[in-house]
């Protein structure tokens, strides 16, 4: 009898690796592998190729921390972007979210995380020094601190803002308020108070 | 501005393919890709290699329908397995489940699905002919129909059992009853009735 691992070493290894992706566990990884093999031409082969391509080509932009096949990345190289504004985000997922929303024409700076003493993540583990360096460039006039409205995000925002005081730039943060489409009855008190405080002329 | 797909073509393609795996969607696929790139050496590279290996090597056993790098598969070639008993399962996931439980020393026959007229899946789409052929072998004395206790599973079980009547074999099915560790209060009436009907001496 094959015992505890009936799938054989190749499939077992694939299942174990897939199970380490966020959102998947051992059971869903097994289902995913069976699905892949059922769709060999449409899914398994293209996925193997796509992963290899990403592993070989995608690199981290040495300027902003974005992911791209070129360094500097396509955003840093895009002359149509506003080089005078830097938008600071926690990770590349947040950068993607802002880009999907076409929310800004600024360039980005990816910190690579937030300060979290409990997890042992201090200022030196983030790309904060590089940010201050970029902000000192006279061409830069504004830094938008677009960090998550969580405790760690806001702690990091305050830390970064303090350091940016020495660079001669305007520092702004995202507005707090009612999400578009949001219902007042479902919002927390902090958001409602902020929305009233920052009320705008109609 | 990069518009709707800020991640670039290589990452976009990987996200799209991962999003087609069961259990993942576009959002979790994006998170998975960022996680992969953060763990390039521990996860991205090994996963790319493991997928390529599976794509190149894993094949379907022409005897039983199991997945393996060899044909016949390691279970069909294992002389310690009982060649006189064939255990019929719906898919390879069910075969793996029975093997993990070390539930049987029988060899397997993977149907590759269940009859489902609504989905256009008829007898010719399943490996039913091959099963009858194997069951006709005089060395085979029993076929265990280990299909799911769902409507489609049981319909298929009846269909297969009828066809097996002409082959000279004993046909058995899995016992219905209280799952080990199960609480009566949470079980459906059908299961409880079956458990009483099939009660055993203590």
CATH class of the largest domain in chain A: Alpha Beta
Strand content of chain A: 5-15%
Number of DSSP helices of chain A? Answer: 8
H/E element sequence of chain A:
HHHEEHEHEHEHEH
Strand order of the largest sheet of chain A: 4-3-5-6
The residue ranges of chain A in which pLDDT falls below 50 over 5 or more consecutive positions are none
Function (chains A, B): May play a role in DNA repair. It seems to be involved in an RecBC-independent recombinational process of DNA repair. It may act with RecF and RecO.
Protein name (chains A, B): Recombination protein RecR
GO molecular function, one term (chains A, B): zinc ion binding
Family (chains A, B): Belongs to the RecR family.
What is the compact description of this entry?
Chain A is an alpha/beta fold and 202 residues long.
Structure commentary:
Two copies of one chain form a homodimer. In chain A, the strands form two sheets. A four-stranded parallel beta sheet of chain A has the order 4-3-5-6. A two-stranded antiparallel ribbon of chain A has the order 1-2. The N and C termini of chain A lie far apart (74 Å). Chain A has 202 residues and is α/β, with parallel strands linked by helices. In chain A, helix 1 packs across helix 2. The longest helix of chain A is centred in the N-terminal third of the chain and has 18 residues. In chain A, helix 5 links the parallel strand 3 and strand 4. Chain A folds into two domains: 48 residues, Helicase, Ruva Protein, domain 3 (Orthogonal Bundle); 94 residues, Dna Topoisomerase Vi A Subunit, Chain: A, domain 2 (3-Layer(aba) Sandwich). Chain A contains eight helices and six strands, in the order H-H-H-E-E-H-E-H-E-H-E-H-E-H. Helix content of chain A is 43%, strand content 12%. The radius of gyration of chain A is 22 Å and the shape is globular. The model of chain A has no long low-confidence stretch (mean pLDDT 92). Chains A and B meet through helix 1, helix 2, helix 3, strand 2 and helix 5 of A and helix 1, helix 2, helix 3, strand 2 and helix 5 of B.
């Amino acid at each position: 009898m094959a015992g505890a691992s009936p799938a054989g070493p190749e499939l077992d290894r694939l299942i174990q690796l897939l199970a380490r992706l966020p959102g998947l566990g051992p059971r869903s990884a097994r289902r995913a592998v069976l699905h892949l093999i059922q769709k060999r031409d449409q899914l398994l082969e293209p996925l193997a190729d796509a992963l290899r391509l990403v592993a070989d080509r995608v690199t981290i932009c040495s300027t902003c921390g974005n992911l791209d096949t070129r360094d500097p990345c396509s955003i840093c190289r895009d002359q149509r972007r506003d080089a005078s504004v830097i938008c600071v985000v926690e990770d590349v997922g947040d950068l993607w979210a802002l880009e999907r929303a076409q929310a800004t024409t600024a360039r980005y700076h990816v910190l690579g995380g937030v300060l979290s003493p409990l997890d042992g993540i201090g200022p030196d583990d983030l790309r904060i020094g590089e940010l201050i360096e970029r902000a000192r460039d006279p061409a830069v006039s504004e830094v938008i601190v677009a960090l998550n409205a969580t405790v760690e995000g806001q702690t990091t925002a305050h830390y970064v803002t303090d350091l940016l005081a020495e660079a001669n730039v305007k520092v702004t943060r995202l507005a707090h308020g009612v999400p578009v489409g949001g219902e007042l009855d479902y919002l927390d008190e902090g958001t409602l108070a902020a929305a009233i405080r920052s009320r705008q002329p109609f």
